[in-house]
Amino acid sequence: MILEIKNLVKKFNGVAAVDDLSFGVEEGTITGLLGPNGAGKTTTIQMVLDLVTPTSGDIEIFGLDMKHSREKILNQINFSSPYVNLPGNLKVWENLATFARLYGVKNIKAKIDELADFFGIREFLGKMTTSLSTGQLTRLNLTKALLNDPKLLLLDEPTASLDPDIADRTRQLLKKIQKEKGLTILYTSHNMVEVEEICDRVIFIQKGKIKDDGTPADLVKKYGHKDLNDLFIAIAREHTNESR
Amino acid sequence: MKLHRINALLIRHLYLYQRSVPRLMDIFFWPIIELLLWGFLSVYLEKMSFGGLNVITVLLGAIIFWDLMSQSQRAISTTFLEEVWERNLLNIFVSPLRLSEFLVSSVLIAVVRVVIVGLVMAGLAWGLYHFNLLYFGFYLIPFMLNLFVFGWTLGFLTTGIILRFGSAAQVLAFGLVFLLQPFSAVFYPVSVLPQSLQYVAKVLPSSHVFEGMRSVIATGTLPVNDLIWAIGTNIFYLALVLWFFSRMFARVKDRGMLMKLD
Hints:
The structure holds two protein chains of two kinds.
Chain A (H helix, E strand, L loop, with lengths): L2 E10 L2 E11 L4 E5 L6 H8 L7 E6 L2 E2 H9 L2 E4 L11 H11 L5 H12 L14 H12 L6 E5 L7 H18 L2 E5 L3 H7 L2 E6 L2 E6 L1 H8 L4 H16 L1
Chain B lengths: L2 H17 L1 H27 L7 H31 L3 H5 L5 H31 L10 H26 L5 H10 L14 H8 L2 H15 L4 H32 L7
C-alpha cells in the first residue's frame, strides 16, 4: 500500500467530519473518493496533505508517518484542484519555476519544458497566469502537480468547471501520464461518468464513514443500479433522508 | 531548513515586485513623502533657530529609522497577505516547505525591502538636506538593527492575528506600527510623556532605540543601558510572537481554515 489510513477521525467543534475512516491505496492505481457534499472527502485529502490536523488516527504514506516524516512524504506527493489556482499576478513560467524550486527540482528549465510540451502549455509560459482560460489553468495546475515527479497525486475534482471537450482531453492526459509514470492517484469527483472511465476502484464515503468500496462495475452490480451515477444519487438521498 | 525552498519564496516575491507598480508604491511612496514633509519642516525649524540640537539631524534621523522599522513590519505582513490574496497558501504548504522556512524567507524579503528603501532615503536625505545618515558612525548601527528586529516582531504579530481572526484583521498589517508611534519616543524624549505612558514606553524596544539614538547624536557615545534594554525586550517579544504565530498556525490547521483564509 502506498497510502494507508487507519481509524482517521476529524471533529470540528465536536462534530465528526471524518469518523473512524480506514482504507488503503495500492501503488499504480487510480482510486476515486466519492460522496455527497459534506461527506468528508476534502477533509480526508487535506489531512493526507497535512493541511488539516487529524483529531485521531494514523496516516501512513510510503510506509512513513506524516507526524515524523512530513518533509520526506510531501517531497513525493502533489496536489491539484481547480479551486486552488496559482498566483495570477505571476507569469506562468515564474509560477512553475517557483514551485520547481520549492520541490528542489534539479534542472528546472528542462522539467518545465518537458511538462509544458506534455500538457500543451508551452505557448503560455510567458503569459500572466491571470490571463489563462479555465481549461488552460487546469493544465497549468496539473503541470505544477507533476513538477516533482510525485509517486502519489491527489486530485480534487480536476475537471470541475471544464466544458465536456476540455474535460475529456484532461482525462486522456491523466490516463496517459498515469500509465507512463505508474502514478498512484487519489481522485475526487462528482462526475460519475468520469469516475467510471478513469478509476480502478472507488470508495463511497457518507457522513465521514466508508459506505462501500470496490470497482465501479462491481458496486453498480452489487446495488442493482443502472450506473455509478444512479448509485451515487441513491446513496446521497439515503443520507439526505436519514438527516430528515 | 533547506535554502532552495527559502530561495524559492524570495524569488517568487521579487518576480512580483519587479512589475507591480502598486507594490513599489507601497515600498517607496510613504517613506519619500514623509522624508520630504519632515525634511522641509526640519529646515524651517532650524532656520527659526528652535532648540539647541541640530533639528535636521534629530528629526530626519528619526523619520528615516521609523520608516525602516515600519517597512520591516509591513514587508513581513504583506509577504503573508500576498499568499492569502492569491489563495496560494494551500499550494505552498502542500509542498515540503516548513513553517520556519516560510518565516525566514519573509525576513529575507523584509531585509531586501529595508535595504532598498534605506538606500533611497539616505540618498534623498543627502541630496536634499545634506544629511549624512552615517555621520555618527557605527554606534547607530546596533540601534538600527534592533528596530528591524522589532519590525519583524510586529509583522509576525499581525500575521498571527490575521491567522486567528481572518483577513478582516488585515488592516493591522498597515496600521499596527502607528499605534506604537506615540509611545516609541520617535520625535521627542520619553520624559515628555505622562508618567503612566512612560511605563508603556519603557517596555517597548523602539523607545530605547530612539532614546539611544538621540543620546548618540547629542554625546557621541554609545548608551549601553538603552542598547541592553532594546536587545532584551526585542528577544523577549520576538520569542513570544513566534510562539503565538506557531500556535495560531496550528490552530488554523486544526480548524481546517488554511484554505478558507481570504
